[in-house]
Design a protein that fits this description.
Shape: elongated
Structural class: alpha+beta
Largest sheet: 6 strands, antiparallel
CATH architecture of the largest domain: Up-down Bundle
Number of strands: 6
Oligomer: single chain
Helix content: 55-70%
Strand content: 5-15%
CATH class of the largest domain: Mainly Alpha
Radius of gyration: 39 Å
């Protein structure tokens, strides 16, 4: 194993943030900032508040209702008046309602208008309406409330999906920042080599040991490398700006521009994953990833639609019971002090096409969700396998790039010694220096590719997903 490559064999995924100094910016600092103050994550979490409002709106269908009515017949044959105040409370468990109130009438009303005619002191009313078949187990109001509650649960996988994406993006931005810093350092290092050589060449030129064109060529090389440093510095500034979107003050949420002084000495330790790790993570990913949870909640919503469609196929059989208690001592002869009235009402739609059509549609939709759930599981496994393969390939390539750097450095040093002894020329030295520089850039890019692959793998197996979230089954 190449000595430059430090490999820590771990079988867990917690990458500690190595703090080399108080100012060093670690990965965990970025992830904590994303969890607490990243605006897009805070915005998507507000979906839960929106869903809570919709649940409360659906609960409004079960609010008690206060009603009042006043009837007057100033120019009719029957010139009486009737007034009532009622409060009705819908029942969630049975689909019916109970009501209570007070009625009073005065004047001349027909005997057959018992519903509005009362004793002189009025009457207290207590009643209940109960569905016995249709709307007994479920009705439109309860279905809307249940689905609003499920929609609230549906926000959890959507928030989780966005959260996993943000965690992946923040990791990649952090690794890009480190890579850009390493590229800038490499560009400055190769520039400094040319500058140091320029001083030595100036002394040799004074002594007449070299031709002037040799120093001119080296100065041309300095200029080209200075241009490369400018470009590398711009790339680092761009990476810092991109990372600042994730790096925020934990109290105010304002962006913090990471500085070069905060760069760690290198990338975090590498992880070598085995097949057993993949198997375990792949199994957990089916429960952690939001796709399966989301489809599970949609299946629960479809079951509510199915129950409602089956309910609408039933006939209406409703029972209404009302108790009237007369108030005051002066009662008409046809009104009892206490009266109890019961009414049984039956009706059935002939075609029932609306309910049948709804039932057909929901059955097809449920079958569709089953297929989508199966594919979601397959897709999760494929994502995990693919990201695992990419991670291992990046790991293997990294070992080769490290060896490439070592060989290039060895050739560069040998060529430099030959040049000092007059056995080589500046062009050969430049070629060796550029080859070493290119090898270092390849190594930096390989490291960045490896850690990007790691970020993809962690997202694919939903490693950041809270373990307490489980699929919804109703």
């Amino acid at each position: 194993m190449p000595p430059r490559l430090l490999i820590t064999l771990l079988f867990i995924f917690s990458i500690p943030s190595t703090t080399l100094a108080k100012k060093t910016l670690g990965l965990e600092d970025i992830l904590t900032s994303v969890r607490k103050q990243y605006p897009p994550l805070l915005a998507v979490r507000l979906q839960r508040d929106i869903a809570n409002g919709k649940v409360r709106k659906a609960e409004g269908a079960f609010d008690p209702i206060l009603s009042a009515a006043l009837m007057a017949r100033p120019a009719n044959y029957y010139t009486g008046t009737n007034g009532s105040v009622m409060i009705a409370q819908p029942l969630r468990n049975s689909g019916g309602e109970v009501y209570a109130g007070y009625r009073v009438s005065s004047g001349f009303l027909a005997d057959y208008e018992r519903k509005i005619r009362t004793a002189d002191g009025g009457e207290g009313v207590l009643g209940v309406n109960l569905p016995l078949l249709r709307n007994r187990a479920i009705d439109e109001r309860r279905a809307k409330l249940t689905q609003a509650e499920l929609d609230r649960e549906l926000t959890n996988p959507e928030i989780l999906r966005q959260y996993l994406n943000f965690m992946r993006a923040s990791r990649i931005a952090y690794y890009n920042w480190i890579a850009a810093g390493k590229r800038l350092s490499a560009a400055e290092q190769i520039l400094q080599i040319a500058k140091d050589r320029d001083t030595a060449l100036g002394e040799q030129l004074k002594e007449g040991a070299i031709a002037r064109i040799v120093q001119v060529d080296n100065r041309r090389l300095i200029v080209s490398r200075e241009i490369a440093v400018v470009n590398a510095r711009r790339s680092f500034e761009a990476a810092s700006i991109a990372l600042s979107l994730f790096h925020r003050d934990l109290n105010t949420g304002t962006t913090i521009m990471p500085t070069r002084e905060q760069l760690p000495e290198g990338f975090p330790p590498l992880l070598l994953l085995d097949e057993m790790t993949l198997v375990n993570d792949r199994g957990r990913a089916i429960f952690r990833r939001p796709e399966v949870r989301q489809i599970g909640i949609l299946q629960s919503k479809a079951k509510v639609d199915q129950r409602l469609a089956l309910n609408n196929l039933k006939p209406n059989l409703d029972l209404a019971v009302e108790l009237n208690q007369a108030l005051g001592g002066d009662l008409p002869k046809d009104i009892e002090n206490t009266e109890l009235t019961a009414l049984l009402n039956f009706s059935v739609p002939i075609g029932r096409n609306e309910a049948k059509g709804r039932l057909e549609a929901v059955k097809a939709y449920m079958a569709q969700l089953v297929k989508e759930k199966e594919f979601a599981r397959e897709n999760i496994i494929a994502d995990a396998n693919d990201s695992f393969s990419a991670l291992n390939a990046a790991y293997q390539a990294l070992a080769q790039t490290t060896l490439n750097v070592e060989l290039s450095e060895e050739l560069e040093l040998a060529e430099a010694d030959k040049f000092k002894n007059g056995a080589s020329d500046l062009l050969a030295v430049q070629i060796r220096e550029q080859a070493t520089f290119d090898a270092r850039i390849l190594e930096i890019d390989a490291l960045n590719t490896y850690f990007k692959a790691l970020a993809d793998y962690l997202a694919a197996v939903a490693k950041d997903s809270p373990t307490h979230l489980t699929p919804v089954n109703r």
